[in-house]
């Protein structure tokens, strides 16, 4: 089953891969992006690009009149530190902008809205790792609050305006097109620094763990989530899926693996731990396996090789 989808943030890292995956599955794709961080060259051939801010009347109008089956929402302010320094800006883009789109989706009869949430921030410092969807929520940054609040808006406006909502709670996504300047992209940062012959900076003792999922696996999960029967129940967690690997990898292991895959000697320098950083983070993906029929198909090293190849191609 396919249809017409609007991918916001489709000129960015994850959204461009999602746009490609929809096209490969026979969907008609329109990308909406203001190019504040994304690049037009990331938008796949075959997708139509509309340059607009998600907070604008044009964005609402596009959804109200565009006859879309699905809104796949990946445009966002993505930097936790920006959200701490400027929480009003974060809320303006991640909440006011999202609500503007939801209002348009309701007016346009959109059937389903898929929202990029974050399993790395909404559970706070979780007791259970890998963390299941039903774990207590406790975001500690304005960015985390905007992601969790976005899920509540999705549920409330979906019920009021008659569309289905699905929240995708990602772990650390990595792969080609991730901006090494972005805070979340530690894998990209390590690869680009090694290519430039620079040392890798490790915050704290380097034993903090993360769960790294390859972007093409994330894209496939989004296509599956576009047509799966929405799990019943009015609870916030019912239509939410952790998208991750359930495998924990610490920063020192990460640095080592990146060095091995690239055939480079790794030199590390240690910096003080960053305030508020979680010690352990990994998500339970049992529900995505059961309900979406999804599990990650890229081994970490294979994803890393694709990322390195992309960096080399970009540098030519
Ligand atoms: N990268 C990760 O590990 C990760 C983890 C959890 C959640 N997410 C979420 O996934 C989504 C995509 O993240 P990404 O890593 O691909 O980031 P990205 O910055 O590469 O992509 C975001 C895109 O949104 C666009 N955008 C930003 N503000 C906009 C606005 N006001 N109007 C229109 N377009 C706007 C940018 O130009 C960019 O192309 C975000 O919602 C992010 O919060 C990412």
Q: Low-confidence runs (pLDDT<50, min 5 residues)?
A: none
Please tell me the overall pLDDT.
Answer: 96
Number of strands: 13
Instruction: Kindly name the structural category.
Output: alpha/beta
Which overall shape is indicated by the principal axes computed on the Cα atoms?
globular
- What topology, given as strand order, has the largest sheet? 3-2-1-4-5-6-11
Number of helices: 10
Sheet having the most strands: 7 strands, parallel
CATH top level class name of the largest domain: Alpha Beta
Classified in CATH, the superfamily of the largest domain is NAD(P)-binding Rossmann-like Domain
Q: CATH topology of the largest domain, which one? A: Rossmann fold
- How big is the Rg? 19 Å
Helix-strand pattern: EHEEHEHHEHEEHEEEHEEHEHH
Listed once per kind, the bound small molecules are: nicotinamide-adenine-dinucleotide
> Between the first and last Cα atoms, what is the distance in angstroms?
39 Å
Q: Beta fraction of the residues? A: 15-25%
- What is the count of structural domains? 2
Name given to the CATH architecture of the largest domain = 3-Layer(aba) Sandwich
Helix content: 25-40%
